[in-house]
Amino acid sequence: MTQHMHDRLLIIDFGSQVTQLIARRLRELNVYCEIHPYQSVTDAFLADFAPKAIIFSGGPDSVTRAGSPRPPKSAYSLGVPILGICYGQQVMMHDLGGLVEAGQSHTAEFGRAYVVPTANRLSILDGWFQGDKGREQVWMSHGDHVSKLAPGFEVYGTSSGAPFAITADLDRNFYAVQFHPEVHHTPRGATLYENFVRLAGFTGDWTMRAYRQDAIEKIREQVGDKRVICGLSGGVDSSVAAVLIHEAIGEQLTCVFVDHGLLRLNEAREVVTMFRDTYNIPLIHADESDLFLGALEGVSDPEVKRKTIGKLFIDVFQKYANEIDGAEFLAQGTLYPDVIESVSFSGGPSVTIKSHHNVGGLPEKMGLKLVEPLRELFKDEVRALGRELGLPEAFIGRHPFPGPGLAIRCPGEITRDKLEILRKADAVYIDQIRKHGLYDEIWQAFAAILPMRTVGVMGDGRTYDYALALRAVTSVDGMTADYYPFSHEFLGETATRIINEVQGVNRVFYDCTSKPPGTIELE
Ligand code: XMP
Q1: Alpha-carbon span 354 to 519, nearest angstrom
Q2: What's the alpha-carbon Rg for the chain, to the nearest Å?
Q3: Average pLDDT, consecutive stretches of 10 residues, N- to C-terminus, the chain (523 residues)
Q4: Hey, whose CA ends up nearest to atom 3 of ligand 1?
Q5: Is 357 in the pocket of ligand 1 (CB under 6 A)?
Q6: Residue 364 is a catalytic residue
Q7: Ligand 1 proximity of 402 Cβ (cutoff 6 Å)
Q8: What is the CATH number of domain 415-510?
Q9: Catalytic pick among 109, 136, 182, 288
Q10: Which CATH number fits domain 208-396: 2.40.400.10, 3.40.1390.10, 1.10.10.10, 3.40.50.620?
């Protein structure tokens, strides 16, 4: 059996939209957990994983339907605490001898609800029901409901649509709730998870310091005395991965930084200085801007731009990587949300809005094995690891920057002149945001140069110059976003500064589009 260094909690995913949030809540408690889709959780998997506790997630199916998702029966006989959430509660009741009834309008609940306690006390609810009305706000999202408890279970909380909102079998340490404690709209949900993991015996040993040590050992074990190539983009993920791998294997790592000529002001110099000079990491600075900008000449279609850059990037990376003798591994800053094999009930493929620039096909093409030391981490955990590794705060807190760079912030044809104007304007805009102390409130902010000139008047003369769009959004994951509500004063001051300081611009717009319907980038 596999030896595991930390206590592990297993989340069996039945397809809820919010399963990842369960993992977030647990990681915040320094509990190591993994999400696995129910299809892959077999008896053998459970025995190997050796969870100290299990959580059944919610899900869109109905346990009353033949063939609906189930956990393996052996989960109930491992002797570890189990918490079932929503569909997870229903599946537990159904499997253990209770009754679940399919949705009826009077028992379905969607959105905010209130649970009140019964006379019995339950330790996983310590800290609950303390408000003046003695009730707790929770978030419900269920059509079916439990109509009869499984033997051994008692009820500890009820809501108007869920007579069995909170249930437990204390002898077996099985807990089951109809609502979702992981979401924001269950304000005291985190307390319930905290109490659950405490009673399951977790010690909160999942710290970044421990992660760093484990990761270093794993990298050494995987790589041995072979060489590793890491593509640096200047973003947080690849930077943290590179510094961590360098700490593990030193000079066996070589970084390749492809400069496609579409980077921000001084960006290439900053990346090279930091990695080569500060960290002493062997670094190839592949300045291929002529190649990329040449290939993009006359191209204005967004998808053609993206595909041109993506293909060239792979060719260039491969060319430089081939110069590194004996490289057997490629390091990537893949994160946990990218590797969770989500349960899809919707079927068909989703429509392609943009072909994202990535190097997904590289390892097979080059016959390299992957080193992915961040694949168990969420984005904010990568930042915490970066801090643990001593990366400068300004680097860690940087806004995301897309692979195709300024190309997708320059709708229409790309020229060196336009890129020059864009770089300077973007630097003034970001400087303004930093000076007003707003940088960390914003997910991403940038300037884009529009494919048009407009007439203006400066001094006593006529100008006919480019117009810029400024964009700033708040977001948690880039999937949806709101535009940032700058004050008029800030916008006016910024527009004035840009027009005064950047030659070639005579008009500035602010983009007030959220995502959807817009996207964050302009192309
Ligand atoms: P959109 O414009 O699709 O962007 O709303 C969502 C997030 O993804 C970033 N982005 C990219 N990142 N390669 C990347 O690495 C790409 O091709 C790419 N396109 C967009 C964008 O900056 C935002 O954070």
Answers
A1: 10
A2: 27
A3: 72 90 91 92 96 96 93 97 97 96 72 89 90 85 88 95 93 96 91 97 91 94 96 91 97 96 95 91 96 98 95 91 91 80 45 63 78 88 94 90 95 98 98 98 97 94 97 87 96 98 98 93 97
A4: 519
A5: yes
A6: no
A7: yes
A8: 3.30.300.10
A9: 182
A10: 3.40.50.620
